[in-house]
Design goal:
heterodimer; A: alpha/beta; Amidase signature (AS) enzymes; 11-stranded mixed β-sheet; 15 helices; 11 strands; 37% helix; globular; B: mainly alpha; Histone, subunit A
């Protein structure tokens, strides 16, 4: 890895957005094989320093790139993005390509089918560069809970890239791939997006199929893009969005074209600032950048007003009961019978199940299974899980009330910039509390995007602004994020990329 | 909120986790902390508030009951830790009396 001013020579290509690359491919100035080759070379150079990938698929990518070039030369491009490579968090199942979900319990598993997100991206002609690292089963905010190794933040390799989709974030931030898929259950795309200076965009719950996405908390999980521009996030989301009969929670209406009108500006939009998010516990450098962002939104013609969300103080407790409860149920399938590892196979079934799970799952996964099992167990169900479900109703009601007077809600993505590896691993509760700004919008299902708002003056690390829209109003969310991004001029500038 | 070791053992058994002694003690302390924090919502008066299990209200999502192609038996068994005669093979389930 080389430190220096700006990107090393010859790799200007790797910093282009997917949208720019698509134009170069369409005009014939660039081939997908050339592009894919450059990204493989970039990955060879940077991945040893950031450990973004669990499994690279260079050969498959080059093969798919060749096919994309052939389609383009026949004038039969599969989509405007045909030939632009992508990477997937290793929670998306991929036919014939190992999928571990970051856990030893699935080491060696080769899925027999593709997730709907993967299938739709294949359909759009996006070559797959590989499967990225994550906190195992998406449980964590740093990738330190990966069963294999932690990923590192390209802005400072002594720090975490955030999580759980930290591998995808690190790869995109390092120029190893133009865009990547993550999943967001409690902030797992928005937070690493914020910590790595990227756009991380969660759609409305139900907008993108969960089929083939290994389930953590089924009522919260959503596939979400990590990109270097708002336009790319809207485009990648649009490729995968829309009804899928394979997911019974998929919204049965067609998805909108999120790029349509994205440059419409924000004149007249009303932004709500959450009264209860006082900034207590946030770093001064984070608060300063976010306050600057609010001022910029006003300058661009938006108006700011305070909205009150009394229920949000209960967001973390409700989330850390509901998500583990659903996880304890979903992860019951890892029992050493149908896939994955098996321990003590020559004993009886209960011993085999219990030993396999103890050995295969990491500490955080076991902790959450235990919390969830406790919260759902006889005698405690109403006091914990039932209460949390009612808090969830209050959160939805508070948001609905707020959206009667505002179009969008804005707040920080995370109270801090990227923290150091090891800094929070001994205190699970402290790690949970850092999700305070993101979990309410998983509980409510609203679309939310983290967009870079510059670097913190405390440590020179990226800060994210979160913009939250009404249910199924992704278009307004992207329009505001786009206007903000363009005016700030951080994304795409030398300041907006790490000196890796 | 104090979780005792008997509760840890009981929950671990329900969850099919063969925790080591060291894990059990660590789990007891961590669960106590986490449930202390999360359990704050127990004190809220939420009578009359409906529970939400899902952010999108979709009811009775079903498809026509028609036979469609699916994974072959071979594909489904390909990654099983043990298989025999076209079936998943598991250790003894019924103990001798």
């Amino acid at each position: 890895m080389t430190a220096g001013s700006g990107p090393p020579s010859g790799d200007g290509l790797v910093w282009r957005t997917a949208t720019e690359l698509a134009r170069l491919l369409a005009s014939g100035e660039l081939s997908s094989v050339e592009l894919t080759g450059a990204l493989i070379e970039r990955s060879d150079a940077v991945d040893p320093g950031i450990n973004a990938y669990l499994h690279r698929t260079d050969e498959l990518a080059l093969e798919a790139a060749g096919a994309a070039d052939a389609r383009r030369s026949r004038g039969e491009a599969a989509s405007p993005f045909d030939g632009v490579p992508v990477a997937y968090k290793d929670i998306f199942v991929t036919r014939g390509v190992p999928t571990t979900c970051g856990s030893k319990i699935l080491e060696g598993w080769v899925p027999p089918y593709d997730a709907t997100v993967v299938e739709r991206c294949h359909g759009a002609g996006l070559p797959m560069l590989g499967k990225t690292n994550l906190d195992q089963f998406a449980m964590g905010s740093s990738t330190e809970n990966s069963g294999f190794f932690p990923s590192r933040n390209p802005w400072d390799t002594g720090r975490v890239p955030g999580g759980s989709s930290g591998g995808s974030a690190a790869a995109v931030a390092a120029g190893a791939v133009p865009w990547a898929w993550g999943t967001d259950t409690g902030g797992s795309v928005r937070q690493p997006g914020g910590l790595c200076g990227l756009v991380g965009a969660k759609p409305t719950y139900g907008r993108i199929s969960r089929y083939g996405m290994i389930a953590f908390a089924s009522s919260l999980d959503q596939a979400s893009p990590l990109t270097r521009s708002v336009e790319d996030a809207a485009a990648l989301m649009a490729i995968a969005a829309g009804h899928d009969p394979c997911d019974s929670t998929s919204i049965p209406s067609p998805a909108e074209n999120y790029l349509d009108g994205i440059d419409g500006g924000i004149e007249g939009l009303r932004f709500g600032i959450i009264k209860e998010f006082t900034g207590e516990g946030s770093q001064p450098g984070v608060r300063a950048r976010v306050d600057d962002a609010y001022t910029r939104l006003e300058k661009l013609g938006g108006t700011l007003q305070e909205v009150s969300m009394p229920s949000f103080q209960h967001g973390i407790p409700a989330y850390y009961l509901i998500a583990p409860a659903e996880a304890s149920s979903n992860l019951a399938r890892f029992d050493g019978v149908r896939y994955g590892s098996r321990v003590a196979g020559d004993t009886n079934i209960v011993t085999m199940n219990s030993m396999t799970r103890d050995e295969g799952f990491g500490a955080e996964v076991k902790r959450r299974i235990m919390i969830g099992t406790y919260a759902l167990s006889a005698g405690f169900y109403d006091a914990y899980y039932g209460k949390a479900q009612r808090v969830r109703t209050l959160i939805i009601q508070d948001l609905r009330r707020a959206y009667e007077s505002v179009d969008l809600i804005v707040c920080p993505t995370s109270p801090t910039t990227a923290f150091k590896l090891g800094e929070r691993t001994d205190d699970p509760l402290a790690m949970y509390l850092s999700d305070v700004y993101t979990v309410p919008f998983n509980l409510s299902g609203n679309p939310a995007v983290s967009v870079p708002c510059g670097l913190s003056s405390d440590d020179g690390l990226p800060v994210g602004l979160q913009i939250v829209a009404k249910t199924l109003d992704e278009k307004t969310m992207f329009r505001a994020a786009y206007a903000f991004e363009k005016d700030l001029g951080f994304a795409g500038s030398p300041e907006g990329r790490p000196r890796l | 909120m104090d979780i005792d070791s008997g509760t840890v053992d009981y929950v671990a058994r329900l969850a099919r986790l063969a925790l080591s002694d060291e894990e059990r003690e660590q789990m007891r302390a961590e669960l106590s902390d986490i449930l202390e924090h999360a359990g704050r919502i127990r004190a809220l008066d939420l009578d009359g508030v409906e529970p939400t299990s899902h952010p999108v209200r979709l009811l009775n999502v079903a498809r026509p009951d028609e036979v469609r192609p699916s994974l072959s038996q071979e594909e489904a068994l390909a990654c099983a830790p043990a298989a025999e005669n076209g079936r998943f093979k598991v250790p003894r389930i019924i103990e001798e009396a």
